[in-house]
Design a protein that fits this description.
heterotrimer; A alpha/beta (282); B mainly alpha (288); C mainly alpha (328); A: Rossmann fold; C: 328 residues; mainly alpha; two-stranded antiparallel ribbon; 14 helices; 2 strands; 1% strand
Chain lengths: 282, 288, 328
Amino acid sequence: MDNLVMATPEQSVTERAEGPAEPSANSEPALKLTFEVKNLSVWYGEKRAIDDVTFNIASNAVTAIIGPSGCGKSTFLRALNRMHELVPKTRMEGTVLLHGEDLYSKTVDPAIVRRRVGMVFQKSNPFPTMTIGENVIVGLRLNGVRNQKFLNERLEKSLRMSALWDEVKDDLHKPGTSLSGGQQQRLCIARALAVEPEVILMDEPCSALDPIATAKIEELISELKAQYTIVTVTHNMQQAGRISDYTAFLYLGRLIEFGQTTTIFTNPSDRQTEDYITGRFG
Amino acid sequence: MRKSSGRADNHDWRKIKNALASTGTFVSAVLVIAPLGLVFFHLLVNGASSVNWDFFTHLPKPVGEAGGGMANAIVGSLELLAIAGVIGIPVGVLGGVYLAEYGSARINSIVRFLADVLNGIPSITWGVVVYGLVVLRFKSFSAYAGGLALGLIMIPLILRTTEEVVLLVPNGYREAALALGVSRWKTIVHIVMKTASKGIITGILLALARVGGETAPLLFTAFGNRFWNHSLSQPIAALPLQIFTYAISPYDDWHRQAWAGALVLVTGVFCVNVLVRILTRGRAASVV
Amino acid sequence: MSLAAQVLIEERFVRERMAPPSRFGDKAFQWLTMAMAMAVVVLVILTGWQLWRGSSLTVEKFGFHFLATSTWDPVAEQFGALPFIYGTLVSSLIALLIAVPLSIATAVYLTELAPLWIRQPLVSLTEMLAAIPSVILGLWGIFVMVPWLRDYPFPFLKHYFGWIPLFTGPIYGPCMFAGGIIIAIMILPIITSVSREILRSVPDLQREAAYGLGATRWEVTRIAVLSYARKGLFGAVILGLGRALGETMAVTMVIGNTPQIAASLFKPGYTLASVIANEFTEATTDIYLGALFEIGLVLFGVTILVNLVAQFLLKTMTTTTSATRAVQ
């Protein structure tokens, strides 16, 4: 970790006076932080997937995690909403604070963490047994929301936010799997938005999509950051450059470099980062 | 390829052997299928004339009187299947879900192995066991005992198929639901089991069709009954039992009824199998 | 009010509407399903215990002699199970001799040699055969198969092979041979379908290598497929044996049900499962019932043992298939 560079994210795009709920107690007033990750390590059995990673993730910004396959970027993302715990024999050390609260505190239920930190996956996965409409509100339903009027409102709002409403408003009763790949992925984003999380994690959300669908999702990400903190994993350098405000480069489970995307891409301070970004390895 | 010396007659001989093997295995396949056709043919020839409205609505006639039906046996079989279902379906389905969703590799291999062992046990064993457990204790043959015997047979069958189809549900659906903050058990019930429901239902139907034709476990549990069963704690008639009793009897009238009963039973079993085939055709598309 | 503030309020609104996740529900569901899975373990133990308890009387009284003597006289309360063990073994052996070559040849045809369009219909038909209830096959056996065997093949065998002790003596109809044939029909589908699975799990690489050497279809099957699958096919046969040993209704209806040990296959026989089926409800004394329970115990033990061997043989083959299935 000799070359570890600890950059602090600066307030960049946020115009909102209020940050998300529960502003962090120990963050500087000018700086809205969503996650503070300190000395995070994650093991799968004997294998150490994340090795002592420390950095902060700014609110209302897009942070991209980049790195070659197997570098632990997906594991890192999952550690932010405790999804990695689904794999048996995982173990973690260090702390992850969400707005100052320890996600891994014994009193915190992982289900609550996941309601606050939503996730969109690499492969779009609308539930095959449900209609488009049911897919959007399934999170609310299964979490005990019964009020039909409220559900309908959330349905429309979530679909509007994911820029899908105009395309599907007449087809809400059709199966979710009847949509095209890009639409399915936006449906999954709507599904995540419906439970009104504070953060949206995206695990290579465009890797299975064609360029046009990808462009739409990227546009959507830029719009969503006004209201949400977004952390996305990508193996596409151009995409990271286009959509992210901050970039973290992971390699072999370690954080090699973190900083503003413009800095990382134009003037990386680490040789490995430069090599990776310019396509010399990865 | 010891014989590849390149000589023409050798080449011909290899071709002939190939043709012989194709023909031989084809004939074997025909011989394997033949009993199916023969049984069906004779069921139709011997049973069709006796399957009429009376058969479904009347009680058996005493020896010497022609006609009568097997209404009590048909209804009895359905009652037994209902009891068996109440026992076998929840245990089998939830047990299968446990293996697929929670179980550790070690527990799973043990349970899976024992389930396969149970599937290999002769069905008559269940009759003996339930006789010892229920009939001896309550001093009476009963519909409960018969249903229990059939239900116990269903458990390992349903457990294995459920486990298999639940494992086929892609992990992405589980993750998607859990990432919405849905609790694990709701994810399993509302997402995973719902996605696998066609497969689970298929397994249940196949198990029902299988035990619906079972006779041996009922011989000394349900016992059979020439009349209507008015209480589930009393002996009850079942179609396969009735067929057996009539088939080994010395009366021609009863033989005719046995053929008719067999035709009805086989038709029921085959209908379920065809239904399953239709269901599984859809499943391939929905799960993968 | 700014948009952001509105969002904030709604955020709380949504979250308050959601029920808190209940750890109790998760735990309860896990325990419930675990209890159900454990039912299988309980069942095996319960079955073994019940059969053991039921047969304690005869085990005490006759001990090992129960399995080695051949007097079955309920009136004199003398019980020896040897004729039933003999009958079970001989009828199962006949069944295997008939069913194994036919089933494996059919499996080969279905996976290697048959034209593609015919495979699925044939597979469906074999599965249909498996769905025929035992009692119906028995009915067909009594009224169709046995009379036919009695009138045509048996006299033929007696005429030409009568010098072999197996085919001597009067032909009654119901007999050991008929029992063996009906069991063969019962186990054809299972051996066929398991063999088919085994052959399908042979990697295509095996076949391609042989084809690459210019082999014919049959040579590929013989050299690359069958030799590779030998162990698994043996497992399929043993699995069939397990079914054969426990087959009850159809055999009971055609085997003649006479406890005797006779060389001729035209003589009636009796099997372990048949004697339980026939005499259980007639067993009036405790010792008689105990004897039948012990026969059940023997049947239980033997089928478990046979299935164990089959599982062991099939394991190597099936783990590879389930592994590929898991990957998909």
